[in-house]
Design a protein that fits this description.
Number of domains: 2
Radius of gyration: 23 Å
Helix content: 25-40%
Structural class: alpha+beta
Number of helices: 16
Largest sheet: 7 strands, antiparallel
CATH superfamily of the largest domain: Aminohydrolase, N-terminal nucleophile (Ntn) domain
Shape: globular
Strand content: 15-25%
Distance between the termini: 16 Å
Number of strands: 21
CATH topology of the largest domain: Glutamine Phosphoribosylpyrophosphate, subunit 1, domain 1
């Protein structure tokens, strides 16, 4: 997952882009970058780290111009440690193009070979985003053939890009001397929306919160397969460029990734999480009698809406039992699983009085590896809980994600090839309650009947692009950035949570 933003304004864009990236920081913490355009010259600054650390006053002053784009990166392919793979990426021909990308190309390996042998283009990193940029540049070059660039030609180029790419991609690109281009994959897996400011600024971003938090009004989501071109005068041109678009956004955006104050594809993320809590209540009642639960406690932070709704429906007190230390970021740790557990305890502390002598139901948004869940359950026991039940607002994560979430290989997923009872024993709780897959889809899908469905592949194993099999998953896993425990803690508790 990554966060991307682009803007065409009549005022300097650097501060606007910076502020928008801060609002998207939850989507990526490994690197950040901004490019601005003044006349026909690009100005770029990017580096590893959080937005507040990457951009200093001197860097901001070196980003003139009223047009620009930016990205916060959470690596899902390539080299997680390479400064070169921080985005935006740049090519000088045709015209000069810079690009940011959120998603993951599932055919990047084949495209890289095509670029070298057929398109005669060179990529210098392992990033699929650089592959995407070069495919776009090649297609723009083909349709213009040395002629001036117009929106119709850009849309023809995007149409060709859609036919070549597989996977998920939300893209924002700047074309020197012409304007800003944004487009979304034909399934709309990754989010991208469009808004305007009172001063005429046109802005695109991964989430509506980046628009509203910078004083812009959300107009609409960019449709799957649609391309939007904003010229340097702020005129917006749009066209559907996919042959058979269908709206199937990633379910994990609503479960965990997006901020609760965002609206994605017409769905309030906060309301989606309330609905998940409502359907989860029915599962809890069928597993643990409500009279056996003294209190309901969320695991910070994105599980809170679901936990609150669950508590209200069951008539059980809702309590905050964990405090998250927001000032412990990624920690430099020693090897070994034991040290990862210590890191979880550094990031999360218990309020002992909420656990001592009680039967507690912990609520999490999802359970992926299970290592964090196991440690949290033990923390509740150490605080004196009599019984510890665990409920997940999402179904079991049984399959890898290939569309831009750094979801582990199937062997790292605690739910893969295990029954719920086997998972419960792994985690060590007294009862384990999961959301139902179909109930989850109904709960979120009811908020926008115009959706064609969801990519819920990590829950149901159905990959909407239709090109994923065991061999493809193995190949994509080989492209994943491998974070060693000797270097960083990659548990979700190490991230600034969307809430």
């Amino acid at each position: 997952m990554c966060g991307i933003v682009g803007a065409v304004s009549s005022a300097p864009a650097n501060q606007l882009l910076y502020d928008a990236l801060l609002l998207l920081q939850h989507r990526g913490q490994d690197a950040a970058g901004i490019v601005t355009l003044q006349e026909r010259k690009f100005f770029m600054h990017k580096a590893k780290g959080m937005v507040r650390d990457v951009f200093r006053t001197r860097n901001m002053r070196a980003l003139p111009g009223s047009v620009g784009l930016g990205q916060v990166r959470y690596p899902t392919a390539g080299n997680a440690y390479s400064e070169e793979e921080a985005q935006p990426f740049y090519v000088n021909a045709p015209f000069g193009i810079v690009l940011v990308h959120n998603g993951n190309l599932t055919n990047a390996h084949a495209l890289r070979a095509e670029l070298f042998s057929t398109d005669h283009r060179h990529t210098n990193t392992d990033s699929d985003s650089e592959v995407l940029l070069n495919v776009l540049a090649h297609e723009i070059e083909r349709v213009t053939r040395g002629a001036p660039l117009h929106s119709a030609q850009l849309f023809a180029a995007v149409r060709n890009v859609h036919r070549r790419l597989r996977g998920s991609y939300a893209v924002v690109a700047l074309i020197a001397g012409h304007g800003l281009l944004a487009f979304r994959d034909p399934f709309g897996i990754r989010p991208l929306c469009l808004g305007r400011g009172a001063d005429g600024t046109v802005m695109v971003a991964s989430e509506s919160v980046a628009l509203e938090g910078t004083g812009h009004v959300l107009e609409r989501d960019i449709a799957p397969g649609e391309a939007v071109f904003v010229d340097l005068q702020g005129q917006v041109h749009t066209q559907q460029c996919a042959d058979a678009p269908t709206l199937k956004p990633c379910m994990f955006e609503f479960v965990y990734l997006a901020r609760p104050d965002s609206v994605l594809d017409g769905i309030s993320v906060y309301q989606a999480r309330l609905n998940l809590g409502e359907t989860l209540a029915k599962r809890v009642v069928s597993t643990v009698p409500p009279k056996d639960i003294d209190t309901i406690i969320p695991i910070p932070e994105s599980s809170r809406p679901s936990a609150m709704q669950l508590a209200q429906l069951l008539g059980i007190p809702y309590r905050e039992g964990f405090v998250k230390n927001r000032y412990v970021g990624r920690t430099f740790i020693m090897p070994g699983q034991g040290v990862r557990k210590k890191s979880v305890r550094q990031k999360l502390n218990v309020i002992v009085s909420e656990f001592k002598g009680r039967n507690v139901l912990l609520v999490d948004d999802s359970i992926v590896r299970g290592t964090t869940s196991r440690e949290i359950v033990q923390m509740a026991r150490d605080a004196g809980a009599r019984k510890v039940y665990l409920a997940s607002a999402a179904p079991p994560v049984r399959f890898p994600n290939v569309y831009g979430i750094d979801m582990p290989t199937k062997d790292e997923l605690v739910a893969h090839d295990r029954s719920v009872e086997e998972i419960r024993l792994q985690i060590g709780c007294d009862a384990l309650i999961y959301q139902d897959v179909e109930a989850m889809k109904r709960a979120v899908g009811s908020l926008n009947p115009k959706l064609d469905g969801f990519d819920a592949s990590c829950f149901d194993g159905v990959y909407v692009t239709g090109d994923i099999d065991t061999a493809a998953i193995m190949r994509i896993n080989g492209q994943r950035p491998h974070v060693e425990e000797t270097e960083e803690d990659s548990s979700r508790l190490s991230l600034p949570n969307p809430s």
